[in-house]
Structure formats: structure tokens, C-alpha cells
Amino acid sequence: MTIEKQHTLKQAASCDGIGLHSGKLVEMTLRPAPVDTGIVFVRTDLEGHPQVHAVASNITATTRATTLTENGASVTTIEHLMAALAILKIDNCYVEMSAAEPPVGDGSAQAFIDKIQKAGIQEQDGERQVYHVDRAFSHYDGDRSIVVLPYEGFRITFTSINPHPLLGTQVLDVEDKGDCFLKEVAAARTVAFEEEIAQLRKMGLGLGGNLDNVVVFGKDKVLSKLRFPDELIRHKILDVIGDMYLLGPIHAHIICMKSGHAFNDNVSRQIDEYRKLHEYHPRHQASVQHKSEIRSKAMITLDIQEIQKILPHRYPMLLVDRIIELEPMKRAVGIKNITINEPQFIGHFPGNPIMPGVLLIEAMAQVGGVTLLYPEENRGKIAVFGKIDKVRFRRPIKPGDQLVTTAIITKIKGNMGVAHCEGTVDGEPACEGDFFFALAENKQ
């Protein structure tokens, strides 16, 4: 296993300009910082130069931007700069600012990235402290949601649904591999709509915005020159990267549905509190296992008898043994224990038994089915496949393994539903896919 090192800047980098929302001039300097410092904002315009640490517990507001407060001082609209630091894997940095808001730059993270790369990046002696998310976290509000799942790497899947005729539904899945974030999201700018600009400015927002640093949509045309055809969703992902870096580097799969800063704030606080509760020490994580689940007392669990009241499947096709978490019509976590006594192993590589991929698909789908069929109005119905998409098998699953499937309902319309399902074994990704269901009457 490769040990990652911490990084800072080789030398100071100056980034001056005006704030996106305040429109105020600001002098900002990024300075090298010692190992384990983290990202620390310094308000040079205030008496005593108070520091504001870039951590989730300091979030105080999320209206159109993320605001942090500590030591009687605040900094706001920090998400684009934080995204730049995250993408370049800068762990330690002092951010000196002569006002509360960083300069807008070009409206993305690219201007900050260019300055940092010009200054140079310095590897440090300390080990990089990456937090490996080991359970699901989520926040729902109507048809909007964000879910954070265990994942070996850092991946974001975003779905944006906007009524504007030039936008509609956009979906993008990106993973922090190579220079993917640099190429795919770093240069994506913030977005605004022409009809809302006057109201935003009455609220004291968007005063530093223009057609170059903001992608502005008119009623039937784009007033700015686009860098990407889907620049809106790419910037949404950039915001997620920046907001989640308040936790430091993490390994997780973040699935977003029409979400924004408030959702990012909610789950980052959940994760932060969970880490504190479990006395998380990054340097010692390899020797400390935190696999216990924290669940609300109101969380629904189902044993096999209760599952059989919901699903019509029976042996040998009932492939979920227990539901350990259930939020009806939203998400579920189910367990399937793989045993050598199951009939498929008689003929599926009998000398080296491996769970067939089609049965893994069925096992994941059944967890999604429970999520949709649990409500009383859906009892007695069946969840029929309409389509299966983006199925991936990441490792063989054998007798003795326990498959833990997390199913997230990403869309519901009428009697149709879509579930994103991910299966893990011993906390490691094993299989995943998107399942399109139609709820139908069970004519038996």
C-alpha cells in the first residue's frame, strides 16, 4: 500500500481581486504551512488577525455559498478555493485575506489552481490523513438528496434537474483518478439566471459577478460563453469537492440529487460528529476498526420473516437475509450471507465457487425492491426490471462472504423508480449498478 505524503506550497502565491457576492476588493495570499496545520484562513484586516480553520464544525451559513466562523471572524464563499486545494491535494496552507470573501477569479477553481501550480507544490514529511468513510450518511429534503457511501477512492455522482429549457436533466459521474478533476470540473464556473440577478443584488449577493466569471442563462439563451456544454453540473460537483474538503481528504462515493451547499453541510457535519464519537485518529486508522453502525432508534430493520411479507421471492431466489437500515422510498441497507449450500455452486465453477453475476444483480435489486415495496400502498405489488445500467463487478464473491448492499432511490415518478445499488464485502466495493423498476400488481 502506497503511503501518501502531505503537501503545501513551495512559496507564497498572491490572488487579488473582488469577491463574487460582496464585490469588495480583497488581497489574498496563500502561504506554506507546516505538517498537520490544515487549511487556515487568516483575516489580516481584523485586529489580532483572527484565524478561521477550514473544518466542518465551523460552518455557520450556506446561502448561495459556504460560510465559516471562528474566533469572532467569518470567511465566506470559500468553496472554490477549497476545491482548488482539494484537487491539487494541498493539505496545509495559510490563506491570508484582507476581507471576508476570496476573489472570484474566473468563477471556478482554475484561477487558484494556476497560481498554486506556478508557486509550486512541496511534499512534506508527514503522512496524509485520509478518512475512509465506513458507513452510509444521507440527507433528504423532498426530491432532493445527498448520500455518502463507503468507497475505495473519491467519487461523485450528481443529477441536476432544472426546468430551464436549455438545461433539463444532467447527470455526471467523476472520480478522482489521474487528472480527471483537473480536466473535467476545475474550470467550471458558477451559474446564475438572468431573472434572479436583480433580486440577488438587492440581497447584497452577486455584486462581483459578470458574464465572464458567471455563466448567466437568459430565458432562451446562454448570455455567457460556455466552457462545457454541461457547465452547470460540473460546477455543482466542484462545489461538492470544495465543501467536503472541510473534512480533509476522504474516500467515499457521494451521490447527489438536486442538492446544494446546505446538503453538503449537513452530511459533512454528520461525518464530522461520527468521527469524533468514534475518537477518529487518522494516523492510527489502519489499526482501529470502526465498523459498528450508528442508527436512529426509529430506523426500520427487517428480519427474514418480515422481508417475505414484502418480497414475493422464495428459495432459492430470495437473496436478502436481513435489512439493517430502511428509510421507505429513500434507501435501504441489506445483507446477503453467501453459503456453500446454495444450489448455484453445484455447477458454477464447482472447484472454485464464485457467486454468479446475475445473482448479484438480483441480490442488489431485491434490496432496492424492499425500499419501494415497504409502504402499505405498495404491499402486494412486485418491482419489475425496466432497465439495468452501469453494472460493474469489482471482485469475486465466494461462499463465506457477506454481501452488504446499499440501495439509494434516486428517482420516483408515478409507478416508476430508479435505485442506485452498491454491494460491499468486508467494506470493500464488490458490485454496483443502476436499476430501473416498474411497480406492478402481482397477478398470481
Features:
444 residues, alpha+beta, 7-stranded antiparallel sheet, 6-stranded mixed sheet, 8 helices, 27 strands, globular
Please state the average pLDDT score.
89
The count of strands amounts to 27
Uncertain residue ranges: 281-298
Strand order of the largest sheet: 21-22-23-25-26-27-24
How can the largest sheet be summarized?
7 strands, antiparallel
* β-strand amount: 35-45%
Structural class: alpha+beta
The total of helices stands at 8
User: How far apart are the termini?
Assistant: 53 Å
Sum up the overall morphology in one term: globular
Relative helix content? 10-25%
- The assembly state of the depicted protein chains is single chain
Radius of gyration: 24 Å
Could you explain how this protein is built, in words?
By secondary structure, the protein is α+β, with helices and mostly antiparallel strands. It has helices at about 80-85, 110-120, 180-185, 195-200, 230-245, 260-275, 305-310, 355-375; strands at about 5-10, 15, 15-20, 25, 30, 40-45, 50-55, 60, 65-70, 75, 95, 120-125, 130, 135-140, 145-150, 155-160, 170-175, 190-195, 215, 250-255, 300, 320-325, 330-335, 380-395, 400-415, 415-425, 430-440. α1 packs across α5 (about 230-245) and α5 (about 230-245) packs parallel to α6.
TL;DR?
This protein is α+β, with helices and mostly antiparallel strands and 444 residues long. It has helices at residues 79-87, 110-119, 180-184, 194-202, 231-244, 261-277, 304-308, 357-373, and strands at residues 5-9, 13-14, 17-18, 25-26, 28-32, 39-43, 51-53, 59-61, 67-70, 73-76, 93-97, 121-127, 131-132, 137-141, 144-149, 154-162, 168-175, 190-193, 214-217, 250-257, 300-302, 322-327, 331-337, 381-393, 402-413, 416-425, 428-441.
